[in-house]
């Protein structure tokens, strides 16, 4: 008995000695342990726990090979301004694969900038009774009208577009200039938008120019159909749109109320689904600008509650939009945003929060405040990394970050997308979804461009098919989350 004990003891001691000696006497770390650690790290990333079928594993290894080649592209698209490399992305084999892939739901798109600028100019502006005006500050306004519009919106001279086009020798050049007016896309972004202020200034102006064009009732209907078509063609099966407060109008200047617009969203989606039976649907997140007053936001919240009770199938919730750095904070609107719980009702929130690099300021608290108001998702969450507590909350509650890489780059939060803060969210397995924010303005359609940036730039070589699968599945799961939260 005693002999056996000593036998085991001395064996154990010997192994300990060897291990110790391996550590102490051998300067090289244990390669086996290293392998385990690397595997463990990969298993923590977004998609690290996803099981792949044999066919998917085959695709994953192909994808890895193709991506490996792309990592040494020069110029490397994610490291450059998207506007300068879009044509390279379009030719990329990874991008082409991403286009074919089912991407789930598009959860962060603004309805005021959701179709390609080509469609807006070549279809919408070619309809009869379209008037245009060039404003003193170098921007545009459109209005459909039976008669010559009155001076308004900084416009003294309105011209009917068909007559204007008839008087031009080069209509194509003119149409191209209209397209340039209606998008931020340009070959020389650094000169056109030297600062965040300059980019946001043009950004807001374009929204104002688009308004008269897309809110004309007949255009509005086709515009929604076109948006669904562009998303569907990029293999997206569901969309949640951030919809602002502008109203649709008719030729005689009469306007429609919000209920009318909601019915149109519902009707056009049904019409679309009749031809595309695998498309799931559209839901609306009401938005107001964050430069409004508390009482105005209160009214908007109240209206959103009413609309949601009346149209629960199509109204998803509520959000605040506009530049966070210059707008009011979520905490500033706390009275308005407490209304639903005061009224003992449910209005899911989908706050833009942390679309800023102003660390430590009032607006920088938006991420935490969004979570304290039980937000269902976080729009952008660019600043989330600065707030470990908020990050933890977002993770444990499964509140996904809506990552819009191209938007963040164009609006100058980050220039080389490999340095996007979501890189750590991705390697840490944080819940994220990918979206496009304002496709018209950024020169994209669908989600594939943003998926490309997230997959190749932010995720790097470690992002794999499991990552893509998890991001797509997250988007469906988050959609279901917001459904259930309002059914409660
Ligand atoms: C615009 O698109 C609509 C719907 O797709 C189509 O019916 C219409 O003919 C187009 N109009 C022009 C001017 O291209
Ligand atoms: C907008 O269109 C006008 C008229 O064609 C043109 O003069 C102007 O340069 C355009 N603006 C931009 C930013 O392209
Ligand atoms: C939506 O469709 C319904 C049923 O076809 C119709 O009665 C209603 O007028 C439509 N609403 C709008 C705003 O077009
Ligand atoms: C949609 O489907 C209807 C009926 O099935 C058909 O008449 C129509 O041409 C289709 N439209 C498109 C754009 O495919
Ligand atoms: C957030 O959710 C918690 C738990 O459901 C609830 O107690 C709290 O009142 C909610 N807060 C707000 C501001 O709605
Ligand atoms: Zn947005």
UniProtKB/TrEMBL annotation:
Q: Which residues form the signal peptide?
A: 1-27
Q: Does the keyword Hydrolase apply?
A: yes
**UniProt subcellular location:** Secreted
Q: Which cofactor does it need?
A: Zn(2+)
The UniProt keyword set, sorted, is: Hydrolase, Metal-binding, Secreted, Signal
Listed GO biological process terms: adenosine catabolic process; inosine biosynthetic process
Q: Where is the Adenosine/AMP deaminase N-terminal domain?
A: 33-98
* Domain Adenosine deaminase span(s) in chain numbering: 195-477
> What InterPro entries does the entry give?
A_deaminase_dom (IPR001365), A_deaminase_N (IPR013659), ADGF (IPR006331), Ado/ade_deaminase (IPR006330), Metal_Hydrolase (IPR032466)
Enumerate the Gene3D superfamilies for this protein: Metal-dependent hydrolases
Entry keyword Flavoprotein: no
What GO annotations for molecular function exist for this entry? adenosine deaminase activity; metal ion binding
Using the UniProt record, give the first listed, main subcellular location. Answer: secreted
Per the record, its GO cellular-component terms are: extracellular space
Which Enzyme Commission number(s) are on file for it? Answer: 3.5.4.4
Reactions accelerated catalytically: adenosine + H2O + H(+) = inosine + NH4(+)
Q: Name one Pfam family in it.
A: A_deaminase
Q: Which CDD domains match?
A: ADGF (cd01321)
Return the PANTHER family for the record.
ADENOSINE DEAMINASE (PTHR11409)
Q: Which family does it belong to?
A: Belongs to the metallo-dependent hydrolases superfamily. Adenosine and AMP deaminases family. ADGF subfamily.
Q: Could you tell me what this protein is called?
A: adenosine deaminase
Originating species: Anabarilius grahami (Kanglang fish)
Organism ancestry:
Eukaryota, Metazoa, Chordata, Craniata, Vertebrata
